[in-house]
Design goal:
The protein has 11 helices and no strands. The protein has about 220 residues and is mainly α. Helix 2 (about 35-45) packs across helix 3 and helix 9 (about 145-155) crosses helix 10. The two termini are about 20 Å apart. The chain has helices spanning about 5-25, 35-45, 50-65, 70, 75-85, 90-105, 115-120, 125-135, 145-155, 165-175, 185-195.
Length: about 220
């Protein structure tokens, strides 16, 4: 197979986005939330677990601790009571409290909306910050690369194999290929595609809208 030129890869990446947008259209955030604070906590809790599991625990959690001030005054043990069904719940409970405390003490009780400030919050990395900025504030400065986005990017050969275990590098690869105006919908549309079709095991390549432009079709 001839080596793909940079422009050909760009064109293919853009076509991927076009087709998935045509298939799914606007996709709402999978985590239930009503404001940027609750979104931040929900995304923080979603690491190493499913969105559905997070959505089961957050109603009671936010009923008990509805604001940054309320959660900042809690102990990690109190928060842990509400999220013990999640993986790594003890460290997540600690991060929830510390995150809320910083929001109160350094940001006047309001979730910040810049990458630099968000990633200062305990438990908040670049992926979480991207989602909070995009979904919570409508600010798009990057692409949140979770397991689905990472898997699809590598199956499509839009990021080199050497970056397969480094989501931050995968993100930079995608940002270099895709025009900025296409960044916004990528996370949620690709997650839908990863759940519906391009699953981790047994991807449904037959009839996939990307079948003819995916180097990994029928090879996984």
């Amino acid at each position: 197979m001839p080596r793909e030129t940079k422009q050909a890869k760009v064109d293919r990446a853009v076509e991927v986005c076009r087709r998935l947008d045509e298939k799914y259209g606007p996709v709402e955030c999978f985590l239930d939330h009503t404001n940027p604070f609750r979104l931040t906590i929900a995304v923080l809790l979603s690491a190493q677990t499913t969105d559905a599991q997070v959505n089961k625990v957050t109603p009671a959690l936010f009923e008990r601790f509805p604001t940054p001030e309320a959660m900042a005054a809690a102990s990690p043990e109190q928060v842990a009571e509400y999220i013990h069904s999640l993986g790594f719940y003890k460290s997540k409970a600690r991060h929830c409290v510390e995150c809320a405390q910083m929001i109160v003490s350094e940001f006047g009780g309001e979730v910040p909306h810049t990458m630099e400030e968000l990633t200062r919050l305990p438990g908040v990395g670049r992926k979480t910050a991207n989602i909070v900025m995009n979904v919570g504030f409508g600010i798009v400065e990057g692409i949140a690369v979770d397991t689905h986005v990472n898997r699809i990017a590598h199956r499509l050969a839009l990021s080199p194999k050497t970056h397969a275990k480094e989501p931050l590098k995968t993100e930079q690869d995608l940002l270099r290929l895709l025009p900025r105006e296409l960044w916004g919908p990528v996370n949620h549309q690709w997650i839908r595609h990863g759940r519906d079709t391009c699953t981790a095991r047994g991807p449904k390549c037959d009839g996939c809208v990307l079948e003819d432009i995916c180097p990994s079709a029928h090879r996984c």
